[in-house]
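Fill in residues.
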């Protein structure tokens, strides 16, 4: 099929991308728009620049019309939490704003703390997040130095794995509902452990039934021909 016909003939569908570190979700969408020559591209949940893993792109009009449905899917993440220092963004890309000593911890301490954060949870929304206030993302207002009131949302969290790696490091895997900020979970877990902390790694493994193992390596996007991406696209049922 001639290259110029791909964009016109390809069905609307889903493209699974394994997002690399230091790319925003918008960066990945912009790259795909240039390659595929399709303007209508959305996603089913943003990933912070520090985060890697599954980004579910909605390609074409029919897919983007169903964005609300895909946004509601639950997700699975794995993360690494560094204890003792809090940053303003609750991840490694932020500025340190507080320090607190880390008490002697055991694996049982960590497991018990995670258990208390299981189920329905009222979590604080990070100031440096895409959550909008009067049309403006909170991260934009925070960068302008505006004083923001803490906001919360209700989420459902199941801790699938939590391990004390060393006296100041915890790694964990969570299955959570849409709207969950894993950075907040890290902050709350550190608080339960009698200290503070921030995430140093974050990776999304699953969105609903979709797995990062089936995703296209985002590092290869810029040199990938459009027909390859069209072939990787999952058609809508």
């Amino acid at each position: 099929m001639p290259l110029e016909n791909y964009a016109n003939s390809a069905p609307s569908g889903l493209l699974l991308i394994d997002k690399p570190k230091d790319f925003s979700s918008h960066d990945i969408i912009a790259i795909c728009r240039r390659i595929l020559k399709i303007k209508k591209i959305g996603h089913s949940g943003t990933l912070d620049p520090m985060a890697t893993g599954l980004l579910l792109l909605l390609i074409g009009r029919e897919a983007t019309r169903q964005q609300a449905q895909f946004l509601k899917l639950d997700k699975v993440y794995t993360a690494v939490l560094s204890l003792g220092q809090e940053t303003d963004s609750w991840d490694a890309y932020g500025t340190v704003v507080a320090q607190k000593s880390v008490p002697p911890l055991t694996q049982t301490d960590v497991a018990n703390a995670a258990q208390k954060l299981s189920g329905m949870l009222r979590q604080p929304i990070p100031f440096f997040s895409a959550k909008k206030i009067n049309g403006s993302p909170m991260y934009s207002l925070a960068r302008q130095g505006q004083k923001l009131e803490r906001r919360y949302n209700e989420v459902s969290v199941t801790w699938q794995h939590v391990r004390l790696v060393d006296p100041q490091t915890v790694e964990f895997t969570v299955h959570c509902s849409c709207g969950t900020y894993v950075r907040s979970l890290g902050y709350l877990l550190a608080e339960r452990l009698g200290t503070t902390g921030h995430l140093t790694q974050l990776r999304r493994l699953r969105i609903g039934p979709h797995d990062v193992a089936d995703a296209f390596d985002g590092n290869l996007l810029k040199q990938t021909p459009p027909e390859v991406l069209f072939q990787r696209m999952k058609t809508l049922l």
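Confidence is low (pLDDT under 50) at residues 1-7.
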